[in-house]
Amino acid sequence: MKRLATVALTALAPISWGSTYAVATELLPPDRPLFTGVMRALPAGLLLTALARTLPRGQWWWKSAVLGILNIGAFFPLLFLSAYRLPGGVAAVLGAAGPLFVVGLAALVLGERASLRTVLAAVVGAFGVSMVVLTAEAKLDAVGILAGVISSASMGAGTVMTKRWGRPEGVGPLAMTGWQLTAGGLFIIPVAALVEGAPPALDGKAFLGYGYMMLINTGIAYWLWFRGIGALSATSVTLLGPLSPLTAAVIGWAALGQALSPVQLVGMAIAFGATVAGQLAAARQARSFSSAEQKDQNISIDLMDEEVRR
Q: pTM of this prediction?
C-alpha cells in the first residue's frame, strides 16, 4: 500500500509536466523557451533551498551541479530545441522513449535487471504515445531528432545517477531538489542570454504563468519526482513518463478545443495500460528481490548460529 501511494504521488510530476504546453502557449511570451527554462528552475531552486535551510557540503557541490545539469540545465534547452525543430508529436515520441535509456543505464550502473515485461511496457508505452501525438504531416529534422535523443538520454542519466548517489545523510529530497534546480537554472542563464538576448517584458498573464510553472510545474513536481527516485527503482519511476504527453493531449482536448480521433483514444488506452503494466512488473520484481535478499540474510544467520553451536 505504501508503494502504491509513492507511485501515485510520483505520477503527479509527469502529469503536471503535461500542462507545460498549454500554459506556455496561452500565458507566456512566445519564442522564449530558454528564458522560460530559467524562470522555471532558478526561482524554484532558490525557494526550495531556502525552505530546506541546507547547502551542499564537500563533494555534494559538484555532484549537485552534475545532477542539475543532467536533469535540468542540459535537458531543458535540448528539449526546447527539439520542440522547435520538430513537430510536437515527434518530439513527444522521442521523450516517451526515455524509459528505454533508463532501463539500459540502470542495468549498467545500478544493477537493476529489467524483466522482459518491463522492457515491453516501455516499448508499448512509447508506441501508444506515438498513436496519440504523431500526424501524417510530421516531418523529420536531423538536428531536432539528435537534440530530442540527447535530451532523453540526459534526463535518463540524471535519473539513474540521482538513484546511484542517493542523498547525503540527514538531507531530504526537498534540499536535493533545490540544489539541482538552482544548478540547472544557473547553467541555462548564459545560454539564454547568448541565444535570446535580454529578458522580455512581462504582463499579468506571464507572471501568472511563470508563477504556476515555478511552484507547481517545477518546484513541487520535481520534488515529487526526486522523492520517488529515492523510494522506488529508477526504472519504475521513469515508466511513469508517458503520463506527460497523455495529459497534454487531454488538456488540449478539454481546455484548448483540440479534437481527439479514435486512433488517438486507442493510443491513450495503450499507453496508459503499458504504464500500469510497467508498474506491476516493477513491483513484482521488487518483491522478488526483497524475498531473495531476505532468504540470503536468513541463510547467513543460520550459518552464524551453526558456527556458534560448534
A: 0.85
